[in-house]
Amino acid sequence: MKMRKTKKEIIVEDVEILDAAAEGMSIARLDLDGSGQEMVVFVPFVVPGDIVDLKIFKKKKSYAEGRALSIKRPSSKRIELQCPHFGNCGGCKWQNMDYEEQLRYKQKQVKDNLERLGNVDTHTMRHICGSENIYYYRNKLEYTFSTKQWHTLEEMEQLGKEAISKERGALGFHAPQLFDKVLNIEHCALQKDPSNDIRLAVRDYAFEHDLPFYDIRNHTGFLRNLMIRNSSIGEWMVVLSIATGGEQTDRTLTPEAQEMLFPLLEMLKAKFPQLTSIQYVVNNKFNDTYNDLNIITYYGKDHIIETMEGYNGGKTLEFMINPKSFFQTNSLQAQRLYSFVAEFADLKGEEVVYDLYTGTGTIALFLAEKAKKVVGIEYVEEAIADARINSTHNGFDNTVFYAGDMAKVLTEEFIAQNGRPDVVVTDPPRAGMHEKVVEQLLMTEAPTIVYVSCNPATQARDLELLSSKYDVVAIQPVDMFPHTQHVENVVKLSLKKH
Protein backbone atom coordinates (compact mmCIF):
# COMPACT_ATOMS: atom_id res chain seq x y z
CA MET A 1 0.00 0.00 0.00
CA LYS A 2 1.35 3.41 -1.02
CA MET A 3 0.27 6.84 0.17
CA ARG A 4 0.81 10.21 -1.52
CA LYS A 5 0.08 13.40 0.40
CA THR A 6 -0.17 17.00 -0.73
CA LYS A 7 -1.61 20.02 1.02
CA LYS A 8 -4.92 19.47 -0.74
CA GLU A 9 -5.38 15.71 -0.94
CA ILE A 10 -4.34 12.23 0.19
CA ILE A 11 -4.11 9.41 -2.36
CA VAL A 12 -3.78 5.86 -1.04
CA GLU A 13 -3.07 3.03 -3.48
CA ASP A 14 -3.95 -0.67 -3.30
CA VAL A 15 -6.49 -0.41 -0.49
CA GLU A 16 -8.64 -3.43 0.34
CA ILE A 17 -12.33 -2.78 1.00
CA LEU A 18 -13.10 -4.85 4.08
CA ASP A 19 -16.80 -4.68 4.87
CA ALA A 20 -20.16 -3.06 4.17
CA ALA A 21 -21.44 -0.34 6.47
CA ALA A 22 -24.45 1.87 7.14
CA GLU A 23 -26.05 4.13 4.53
CA GLY A 24 -24.86 1.95 1.67
CA MET A 25 -21.20 2.65 2.35
CA SER A 26 -18.32 0.20 2.47
CA ILE A 27 -15.30 0.54 4.73
CA ALA A 28 -11.54 0.29 4.71
CA ARG A 29 -9.13 0.78 7.63
CA LEU A 30 -6.07 3.00 7.17
CA ASP A 31 -3.36 4.68 9.20
CA LEU A 32 -3.56 8.10 7.58
CA ASP A 33 -1.36 10.09 9.96
CA GLY A 34 1.45 7.60 10.63
CA SER A 35 0.45 7.12 14.27
CA GLY A 36 0.12 3.36 13.97
CA GLN A 37 -3.61 3.65 14.70
CA GLU A 38 -5.96 2.76 11.89
CA MET A 39 -9.20 4.64 11.40
CA VAL A 40 -12.35 3.69 9.52
CA VAL A 41 -12.63 5.12 6.01
CA PHE A 42 -16.11 5.18 4.47
CA VAL A 43 -16.22 4.65 0.70
CA PRO A 44 -19.35 4.61 -1.55
CA PHE A 45 -20.00 2.47 -4.63
CA VAL A 46 -17.38 -0.20 -3.90
CA VAL A 47 -17.74 -3.84 -2.85
CA PRO A 48 -16.04 -5.70 0.01
CA GLY A 49 -13.04 -7.49 -1.48
CA ASP A 50 -12.26 -4.76 -4.03
CA ILE A 51 -8.66 -3.52 -4.20
CA VAL A 52 -8.83 0.19 -5.03
CA ASP A 53 -6.92 3.44 -5.18
CA LEU A 54 -8.58 5.91 -2.83
CA LYS A 55 -8.73 9.67 -2.66
CA ILE A 56 -9.42 10.90 0.88
CA PHE A 57 -11.59 14.04 0.75
CA LYS A 58 -12.62 14.33 4.39
CA LYS A 59 -10.65 13.45 7.52
CA LYS A 60 -11.97 13.72 11.08
CA LYS A 61 -10.53 12.54 14.38
CA SER A 62 -12.18 9.13 14.36
CA TYR A 63 -13.03 8.49 10.71
CA ALA A 64 -12.43 9.58 7.14
CA GLU A 65 -14.33 9.57 3.86
CA GLY A 66 -12.88 8.59 0.53
CA ARG A 67 -13.72 8.01 -3.10
CA ALA A 68 -12.42 5.20 -5.28
CA LEU A 69 -10.33 6.57 -8.14
CA SER A 70 -9.89 3.17 -9.76
CA ILE A 71 -10.60 -0.50 -9.14
CA LYS A 72 -7.25 -2.29 -9.19
CA ARG A 73 -8.72 -5.75 -8.62
CA PRO A 74 -12.47 -6.31 -8.52
CA SER A 75 -14.05 -8.36 -5.77
CA SER A 76 -15.54 -11.77 -6.50
CA LYS A 77 -18.72 -10.34 -4.96
CA ARG A 78 -19.15 -7.84 -7.80
CA ILE A 79 -21.91 -8.29 -10.38
CA GLU A 80 -22.76 -6.65 -13.70
CA LEU A 81 -24.66 -3.39 -13.41
CA GLN A 82 -28.21 -3.03 -14.71
CA CYS A 83 -28.41 0.75 -14.37
CA PRO A 84 -26.49 3.29 -16.52
CA HIS A 85 -26.67 5.85 -13.71
CA PHE A 86 -24.99 3.82 -10.96
CA GLY A 87 -22.51 5.93 -9.01
CA ASN A 88 -24.24 9.19 -9.91
CA CYS A 89 -27.79 8.48 -8.76
CA GLY A 90 -28.20 8.42 -4.98
CA GLY A 91 -30.22 5.18 -4.96
CA CYS A 92 -29.31 1.49 -5.34
CA LYS A 93 -25.85 1.90 -3.81
CA TRP A 94 -25.36 -1.88 -3.57
CA GLN A 95 -26.40 -2.69 -7.12
CA ASN A 96 -22.82 -3.75 -7.94
CA MET A 97 -22.87 -6.37 -5.14
CA ASP A 98 -24.06 -9.97 -5.49
CA TYR A 99 -27.58 -10.22 -4.05
CA GLU A 100 -26.75 -13.04 -1.64
CA GLU A 101 -24.02 -10.83 -0.20
CA GLN A 102 -26.48 -7.96 0.14
CA LEU A 103 -28.77 -10.24 2.15
CA ARG A 104 -25.89 -11.40 4.32
CA TYR A 105 -24.98 -7.82 5.22
CA LYS A 106 -28.60 -6.91 5.92
CA GLN A 107 -28.95 -9.92 8.21
CA LYS A 108 -25.78 -8.83 9.98
CA GLN A 109 -27.08 -5.28 10.27
CA VAL A 110 -30.25 -6.46 12.04
CA LYS A 111 -28.34 -8.84 14.32
CA ASP A 112 -25.73 -6.24 15.30
CA ASN A 113 -28.33 -3.57 16.07
CA LEU A 114 -30.53 -5.85 18.17
CA GLU A 115 -27.60 -7.23 20.16
CA ARG A 116 -25.61 -4.01 20.57
CA LEU A 117 -28.41 -1.48 21.07
CA GLY A 118 -31.20 -3.63 22.48
CA ASN A 119 -29.34 -6.38 24.37
CA VAL A 120 -31.57 -8.83 22.49
CA ASP A 121 -30.77 -12.54 22.43
CA THR A 122 -30.85 -13.24 18.67
CA HIS A 123 -30.76 -17.06 18.78
CA THR A 124 -34.40 -17.04 17.51
CA MET A 125 -33.45 -15.00 14.44
CA ARG A 126 -34.42 -16.61 11.14
CA HIS A 127 -32.67 -16.26 7.80
CA ILE A 128 -33.63 -13.06 5.99
CA CYS A 129 -36.44 -13.34 3.45
CA GLY A 130 -35.04 -12.12 0.14
CA SER A 131 -37.06 -10.48 -2.61
CA GLU A 132 -38.15 -12.69 -5.49
CA ASN A 133 -37.69 -9.76 -7.86
CA ILE A 134 -34.53 -7.73 -7.40
CA TYR A 135 -35.12 -5.47 -10.41
CA TYR A 136 -38.31 -3.74 -11.53
CA TYR A 137 -39.97 -4.45 -8.19
CA ARG A 138 -41.24 -0.98 -7.24
CA ASN A 139 -44.83 0.09 -7.80
CA LYS A 140 -44.19 3.80 -7.39
CA LEU A 141 -41.54 6.27 -8.55
CA GLU A 142 -41.47 10.04 -8.25
CA TYR A 143 -39.44 12.22 -10.60
CA THR A 144 -38.52 15.91 -10.49
CA PHE A 145 -38.29 18.48 -13.29
CA SER A 146 -35.49 21.02 -12.98
CA THR A 147 -33.95 23.73 -15.10
CA LYS A 148 -30.55 22.56 -13.85
CA GLN A 149 -29.22 19.22 -15.02
CA TRP A 150 -26.52 17.54 -12.94
CA HIS A 151 -23.34 16.46 -14.73
CA THR A 152 -20.17 14.66 -13.71
CA LEU A 153 -16.93 16.65 -13.85
CA GLU A 154 -15.95 14.71 -16.95
CA GLU A 155 -19.23 15.57 -18.66
CA MET A 156 -18.86 19.24 -17.75
CA GLU A 157 -15.38 19.33 -19.29
CA GLN A 158 -16.60 17.62 -22.46
CA LEU A 159 -19.72 19.75 -22.88
CA GLY A 160 -18.33 23.11 -21.84
CA LYS A 161 -20.09 25.96 -20.06
CA GLU A 162 -21.78 27.29 -23.19
CA ALA A 163 -23.45 23.97 -24.05
CA ILE A 164 -24.54 23.43 -20.46
CA SER A 165 -26.04 26.93 -20.29
CA LYS A 166 -28.26 26.10 -23.29
CA GLU A 167 -29.70 22.90 -21.77
CA ARG A 168 -33.45 22.98 -21.32
CA GLY A 169 -33.53 20.97 -18.10
CA ALA A 170 -33.76 17.49 -16.68
CA LEU A 171 -36.39 15.02 -15.55
CA GLY A 172 -35.19 12.45 -13.04
CA PHE A 173 -33.91 12.17 -9.48
CA HIS A 174 -32.30 14.82 -7.32
CA ALA A 175 -28.53 14.60 -7.33
CA PRO A 176 -27.29 13.52 -3.86
CA GLN A 177 -27.16 16.45 -1.43
CA LEU A 178 -28.12 18.98 -4.13
CA PHE A 179 -31.63 20.38 -3.85
CA ASP A 180 -31.67 22.25 -7.16
CA LYS A 181 -29.94 19.87 -9.57
CA VAL A 182 -31.51 16.79 -11.11
CA LEU A 183 -29.88 13.80 -12.76
CA ASN A 184 -31.54 13.19 -16.12
CA ILE A 185 -32.66 9.55 -15.98
CA GLU A 186 -32.54 7.60 -19.23
CA HIS A 187 -33.36 4.22 -17.70
CA CYS A 188 -34.30 3.17 -14.18
CA ALA A 189 -34.25 -0.53 -13.29
CA LEU A 190 -36.69 -0.19 -10.38
CA GLN A 191 -40.13 -0.03 -12.05
CA LYS A 192 -41.24 -2.19 -14.95
CA ASP A 193 -42.29 -1.02 -18.41
CA PRO A 194 -43.85 1.23 -19.50
CA SER A 195 -42.57 3.39 -16.62
CA ASN A 196 -39.38 4.45 -18.39
CA ASP A 197 -41.25 5.05 -21.65
CA ILE A 198 -43.81 7.25 -19.88
CA ARG A 199 -41.11 9.41 -18.29
CA LEU A 200 -39.17 9.77 -21.53
CA ALA A 201 -42.35 10.57 -23.48
CA VAL A 202 -43.19 13.37 -21.05
CA ARG A 203 -39.66 14.77 -21.21
CA ASP A 204 -39.46 14.60 -25.00
CA TYR A 205 -42.89 16.20 -25.40
CA ALA A 206 -41.86 19.00 -23.04
CA PHE A 207 -38.69 19.65 -25.04
CA GLU A 208 -40.55 19.56 -28.36
CA HIS A 209 -43.23 21.98 -27.19
CA ASP A 210 -40.94 24.24 -25.10
CA LEU A 211 -42.76 23.61 -21.84
CA PRO A 212 -40.73 25.30 -19.09
CA PHE A 213 -39.24 23.12 -16.35
CA TYR A 214 -39.45 24.25 -12.74
CA ASP A 215 -36.70 26.42 -11.26
CA ILE A 216 -36.72 25.71 -7.55
CA ARG A 217 -34.46 28.64 -6.71
CA ASN A 218 -36.62 31.27 -8.38
CA HIS A 219 -39.93 29.37 -8.14
CA THR A 220 -40.68 29.79 -11.80
CA GLY A 221 -41.59 27.33 -14.53
CA PHE A 222 -44.46 24.98 -15.26
CA LEU A 223 -43.59 21.26 -15.03
CA ARG A 224 -42.69 20.34 -11.46
CA ASN A 225 -43.04 16.63 -10.57
CA LEU A 226 -44.13 13.36 -12.17
CA MET A 227 -45.38 10.35 -10.20
CA ILE A 228 -45.92 6.95 -11.80
CA ARG A 229 -47.72 4.18 -9.87
CA ASN A 230 -48.75 0.71 -10.95
CA SER A 231 -50.35 -2.37 -9.44
CA SER A 232 -49.78 -6.09 -9.84
CA ILE A 233 -53.04 -6.44 -11.80
CA GLY A 234 -51.84 -4.07 -14.53
CA GLU A 235 -53.38 -0.73 -13.56
CA TRP A 236 -51.25 2.39 -14.05
CA MET A 237 -51.51 5.92 -12.69
CA VAL A 238 -49.73 9.13 -13.69
CA VAL A 239 -49.90 12.28 -11.58
CA LEU A 240 -48.35 15.44 -13.03
CA SER A 241 -47.58 18.32 -10.69
CA ILE A 242 -47.49 21.76 -12.28
CA ALA A 243 -46.81 25.29 -11.09
CA THR A 244 -48.81 28.21 -12.43
CA GLY A 245 -47.56 31.05 -10.27
CA GLY A 246 -49.34 33.21 -7.74
CA GLU A 247 -52.48 32.01 -6.00
CA GLN A 248 -53.93 30.25 -9.03
CA THR A 249 -55.55 26.90 -8.21
CA ASP A 250 -56.69 23.85 -10.13
CA ARG A 251 -60.16 25.34 -10.49
CA THR A 252 -58.90 28.50 -12.17
CA LEU A 253 -56.41 27.30 -14.75
CA THR A 254 -55.74 30.06 -17.24
CA PRO A 255 -56.22 29.31 -20.94
CA GLU A 256 -52.43 29.44 -21.28
CA ALA A 257 -51.96 26.77 -18.58
CA GLN A 258 -54.63 24.60 -20.17
CA GLU A 259 -52.95 24.91 -23.56
CA MET A 260 -49.70 23.63 -22.07
CA LEU A 261 -51.14 20.92 -19.83
CA PHE A 262 -54.08 19.26 -21.56
CA PRO A 263 -52.35 18.30 -24.85
CA LEU A 264 -49.56 16.69 -22.82
CA LEU A 265 -52.10 14.62 -20.89
CA GLU A 266 -53.88 13.75 -24.13
CA MET A 267 -50.57 12.51 -25.54
CA LEU A 268 -50.16 10.18 -22.53
CA LYS A 269 -53.74 8.95 -22.87
CA ALA A 270 -53.26 8.13 -26.56
CA LYS A 271 -49.75 6.68 -26.36
CA PHE A 272 -50.16 4.56 -23.24
CA PRO A 273 -53.46 2.64 -23.19
CA GLN A 274 -52.24 0.92 -20.00
CA LEU A 275 -52.96 4.13 -18.08
CA THR A 276 -56.17 3.77 -16.11
CA SER A 277 -55.73 7.04 -14.20
CA ILE A 278 -54.28 10.36 -15.36
CA GLN A 279 -54.35 13.15 -12.78
CA TYR A 280 -52.77 16.52 -12.14
CA VAL A 281 -52.23 18.89 -9.25
CA VAL A 282 -51.41 22.59 -9.16
CA ASN A 283 -48.67 23.23 -6.63
CA ASN A 284 -47.56 26.83 -6.16
CA LYS A 285 -46.02 26.19 -2.74
CA PHE A 286 -42.33 26.41 -1.90
CA ASN A 287 -42.11 22.63 -1.44
CA ASP A 288 -43.10 19.59 -3.50
CA THR A 289 -45.60 18.02 -1.11
CA TYR A 290 -49.25 17.92 -2.19
CA ASN A 291 -51.05 16.06 0.58
CA ASP A 292 -52.86 19.30 1.39
CA LEU A 293 -53.75 20.05 -2.24
CA ASN A 294 -56.65 19.05 -4.45
CA ILE A 295 -55.75 16.49 -7.11
CA ILE A 296 -57.81 16.56 -10.29
CA THR A 297 -58.66 13.45 -12.30
CA TYR A 298 -58.22 14.22 -15.99
CA TYR A 299 -58.90 10.73 -17.32
CA GLY A 300 -60.04 7.40 -15.89
CA LYS A 301 -60.38 6.65 -12.19
CA ASP A 302 -59.03 8.63 -9.25
CA HIS A 303 -57.32 5.48 -7.96
CA ILE A 304 -55.78 2.18 -8.96
CA ILE A 305 -56.52 -1.23 -7.45
CA GLU A 306 -53.86 -3.43 -5.87
CA THR A 307 -54.63 -6.98 -4.76
CA MET A 308 -53.04 -9.14 -2.09
CA GLU A 309 -53.69 -12.77 -1.27
CA GLY A 310 -54.95 -13.35 2.25
CA TYR A 311 -52.86 -15.22 4.78
CA ASN A 312 -52.98 -19.03 4.80
CA GLY A 313 -55.83 -19.40 2.34
CA GLY A 314 -57.62 -16.20 3.28
CA LYS A 315 -59.62 -14.22 0.77
CA THR A 316 -57.89 -11.97 -1.74
CA LEU A 317 -57.91 -8.36 -0.61
CA GLU A 318 -58.32 -5.31 -2.82
CA PHE A 319 -56.82 -1.94 -1.94
CA MET A 320 -57.90 1.31 -3.56
CA ILE A 321 -54.76 3.43 -3.91
CA ASN A 322 -55.10 7.14 -4.67
CA PRO A 323 -52.21 9.57 -5.28
CA LYS A 324 -51.90 10.38 -1.58
CA SER A 325 -52.20 6.79 -0.31
CA PHE A 326 -49.33 5.03 1.40
CA PHE A 327 -48.76 1.49 0.17
CA GLN A 328 -45.62 -0.62 0.39
CA THR A 329 -43.66 0.01 -2.81
CA ASN A 330 -42.70 -3.66 -3.25
CA SER A 331 -46.12 -5.32 -3.55
CA LEU A 332 -44.99 -8.95 -3.74
CA GLN A 333 -42.64 -8.58 -0.80
CA ALA A 334 -45.31 -6.76 1.20
CA GLN A 335 -47.39 -9.93 0.92
CA ARG A 336 -44.54 -11.88 2.52
CA LEU A 337 -43.92 -9.25 5.19
CA TYR A 338 -47.57 -9.27 6.25
CA SER A 339 -47.63 -13.07 6.20
CA PHE A 340 -44.88 -13.08 8.83
CA VAL A 341 -46.90 -10.59 10.87
CA ALA A 342 -49.94 -12.89 10.65
CA GLU A 343 -47.85 -15.93 11.55
CA PHE A 344 -46.43 -14.20 14.62
CA ALA A 345 -49.88 -12.91 15.63
CA ASP A 346 -51.15 -16.52 15.50
CA LEU A 347 -54.81 -15.52 15.52
CA LYS A 348 -57.51 -18.09 16.34
CA GLY A 349 -60.54 -15.95 15.59
CA GLU A 350 -61.43 -14.58 19.03
CA GLU A 351 -58.69 -11.99 19.49
CA VAL A 352 -58.89 -8.22 19.73
CA VAL A 353 -56.00 -6.81 17.69
CA TYR A 354 -54.62 -3.28 17.90
CA ASP A 355 -52.75 -2.10 14.81
CA LEU A 356 -50.67 0.93 15.77
CA TYR A 357 -49.44 3.28 13.03
CA THR A 358 -51.91 1.50 10.76
CA GLY A 359 -51.44 3.87 7.81
CA THR A 360 -54.08 2.98 5.23
CA GLY A 361 -54.92 -0.18 7.16
CA THR A 362 -53.09 -2.76 5.04
CA ILE A 363 -51.90 -4.87 7.97
CA ALA A 364 -55.20 -4.38 9.82
CA LEU A 365 -57.18 -5.72 6.87
CA PHE A 366 -54.68 -8.52 6.30
CA LEU A 367 -55.44 -9.72 9.86
CA ALA A 368 -59.16 -8.88 9.99
CA GLU A 369 -60.43 -12.17 8.57
CA LYS A 370 -58.68 -14.12 11.34
CA ALA A 371 -59.56 -11.78 14.24
CA LYS A 372 -62.64 -10.95 16.27
CA LYS A 373 -61.92 -7.23 16.04
CA VAL A 374 -59.12 -5.04 14.67
CA VAL A 375 -58.55 -1.51 15.94
CA GLY A 376 -56.33 0.70 13.78
CA ILE A 377 -54.75 3.93 15.00
CA GLU A 378 -52.90 6.43 12.81
CA TYR A 379 -51.91 10.10 13.04
CA VAL A 380 -52.74 11.00 9.42
CA GLU A 381 -56.49 11.52 8.96
CA GLU A 382 -56.38 11.01 5.19
CA ALA A 383 -54.79 7.59 5.71
CA ILE A 384 -57.54 6.60 8.14
CA ALA A 385 -60.14 7.67 5.55
CA ASP A 386 -58.44 5.30 3.06
CA ALA A 387 -58.41 2.52 5.66
CA ARG A 388 -62.16 2.84 6.24
CA ILE A 389 -62.88 2.85 2.50
CA ASN A 390 -60.74 -0.25 1.95
CA SER A 391 -62.30 -2.03 4.90
CA THR A 392 -65.79 -1.44 3.52
CA HIS A 393 -64.65 -2.35 0.00
CA ASN A 394 -63.42 -5.72 1.29
CA GLY A 395 -66.58 -6.41 3.28
CA PHE A 396 -65.18 -6.23 6.81
CA ASP A 397 -67.44 -5.17 9.66
CA ASN A 398 -65.03 -6.00 12.48
CA THR A 399 -62.59 -3.11 11.98
CA VAL A 400 -62.56 0.37 13.50
CA PHE A 401 -60.05 3.11 12.74
CA TYR A 402 -59.06 6.18 14.74
CA ALA A 403 -57.00 9.20 13.74
CA GLY A 404 -54.89 10.92 16.36
CA ASP A 405 -51.60 11.18 18.21
CA MET A 406 -50.74 7.66 19.36
CA ALA A 407 -49.51 8.82 22.76
CA LYS A 408 -52.83 10.60 23.38
CA VAL A 409 -55.22 8.08 21.85
CA LEU A 410 -53.98 4.88 23.50
CA THR A 411 -55.37 5.41 27.01
CA GLU A 412 -57.17 3.26 29.57
CA GLU A 413 -60.44 4.91 28.53
CA PHE A 414 -59.75 3.99 24.89
CA ILE A 415 -58.99 0.40 25.89
CA ALA A 416 -62.15 0.20 27.96
CA GLN A 417 -64.12 1.36 24.92
CA ASN A 418 -62.48 -0.96 22.37
CA GLY A 419 -61.47 -3.94 24.46
CA ARG A 420 -58.12 -4.94 25.92
CA PRO A 421 -55.87 -6.17 23.11
CA ASP A 422 -54.81 -9.78 22.86
CA VAL A 423 -52.32 -8.86 20.13
CA VAL A 424 -50.72 -5.51 19.37
CA VAL A 425 -49.09 -4.93 15.99
CA THR A 426 -46.91 -1.83 15.80
CA ASP A 427 -45.29 -0.54 12.62
CA PRO A 428 -43.88 2.90 13.50
CA PRO A 429 -41.91 5.28 11.24
CA ARG A 430 -38.10 5.19 11.14
CA ALA A 431 -37.83 7.16 14.37
CA GLY A 432 -39.52 4.31 16.26
CA MET A 433 -42.09 4.66 19.00
CA HIS A 434 -42.38 7.60 21.37
CA GLU A 435 -41.39 6.62 24.89
CA LYS A 436 -44.93 7.35 26.10
CA VAL A 437 -46.31 4.89 23.54
CA VAL A 438 -43.92 2.24 24.84
CA GLU A 439 -45.13 2.96 28.37
CA GLN A 440 -48.74 2.55 27.25
CA LEU A 441 -47.90 -0.73 25.52
CA LEU A 442 -46.40 -1.99 28.76
CA MET A 443 -49.55 -0.86 30.53
CA THR A 444 -51.83 -2.86 28.22
CA GLU A 445 -49.96 -6.11 28.97
CA ALA A 446 -51.16 -7.61 25.69
CA PRO A 447 -50.04 -11.27 25.59
CA THR A 448 -48.38 -10.76 22.17
CA ILE A 449 -46.73 -7.82 20.46
CA VAL A 450 -45.61 -7.96 16.82
CA TYR A 451 -43.16 -5.15 16.10
CA VAL A 452 -42.53 -4.31 12.42
CA SER A 453 -39.69 -1.90 11.75
CA CYS A 454 -37.87 -0.28 8.84
CA ASN A 455 -35.06 0.79 11.18
CA PRO A 456 -33.49 -1.97 13.29
CA ALA A 457 -31.60 0.61 15.39
CA THR A 458 -34.69 2.35 16.76
CA GLN A 459 -36.46 -1.00 16.98
CA ALA A 460 -33.63 -2.28 19.18
CA ARG A 461 -33.95 0.76 21.44
CA ASP A 462 -37.69 0.14 21.86
CA LEU A 463 -37.22 -3.57 22.45
CA GLU A 464 -34.93 -2.82 25.37
CA LEU A 465 -37.62 -0.57 26.86
CA LEU A 466 -40.20 -3.35 26.43
CA SER A 467 -37.91 -5.98 27.94
CA SER A 468 -39.14 -5.26 31.47
CA LYS A 469 -42.32 -7.18 30.65
CA TYR A 470 -41.68 -8.91 27.32
CA ASP A 471 -39.38 -11.56 25.88
CA VAL A 472 -38.32 -11.63 22.22
CA VAL A 473 -39.39 -15.05 20.92
CA ALA A 474 -38.99 -14.73 17.12
CA ILE A 475 -37.11 -12.47 14.68
CA GLN A 476 -37.64 -12.31 10.91
CA PRO A 477 -35.74 -9.86 8.69
CA VAL A 478 -37.30 -9.09 5.29
CA ASP A 479 -35.64 -7.39 2.33
CA MET A 480 -38.11 -4.98 0.79
CA PHE A 481 -35.59 -2.92 -1.18
CA PRO A 482 -32.88 -4.86 -3.05
CA HIS A 483 -29.67 -2.95 -3.87
CA THR A 484 -30.18 -0.55 -0.97
CA GLN A 485 -29.02 -0.79 2.64
CA HIS A 486 -32.61 -0.68 3.93
CA VAL A 487 -34.11 -3.71 5.65
CA GLU A 488 -37.40 -4.46 7.43
CA ASN A 489 -37.53 -6.58 10.55
CA VAL A 490 -40.44 -8.32 12.27
CA VAL A 491 -40.12 -9.28 15.95
CA LYS A 492 -42.55 -11.27 18.08
CA LEU A 493 -42.66 -10.50 21.79
CA SER A 494 -44.48 -12.50 24.45
CA LEU A 495 -45.59 -11.24 27.83
CA LYS A 496 -43.43 -12.66 30.60
CA LYS A 497 -45.12 -14.99 33.03
CA HIS A 498 -45.43 -13.48 36.47
Tell me what the structure shows.
With 498 residues, the chain is α+β, with helices and mostly antiparallel strands. The chain is 26% helix and 28% strand. The chain is built from 11 helices and 23 strands. The chain has helices spanning 99-118, 153-165, 195-208, 255-271, 331-345, 362-368, 381-393, 406-409, 412-418, 435-444, 456-466; strands spanning 2-5, 10-16, 19-20, 26-30, 39-43, 51-59, 63-73, 140-146, 170-174, 182-184, 223-230, 236-242, 275-282, 295-300, 304-308, 317-321, 352-356, 373-378, 399-403, 423-426, 448-453, 470-478, 488-495. It has a 7-stranded mixed β-sheet, with no helix packed on it. Strand 12, helix 4 and strand 13 (275-282) form a beta-alpha-beta unit. Helix 1 packs parallel to helix 11 (456-466). The protein is globular and about 70 Å long. The model has no long low-confidence stretch (mean pLDDT 93).
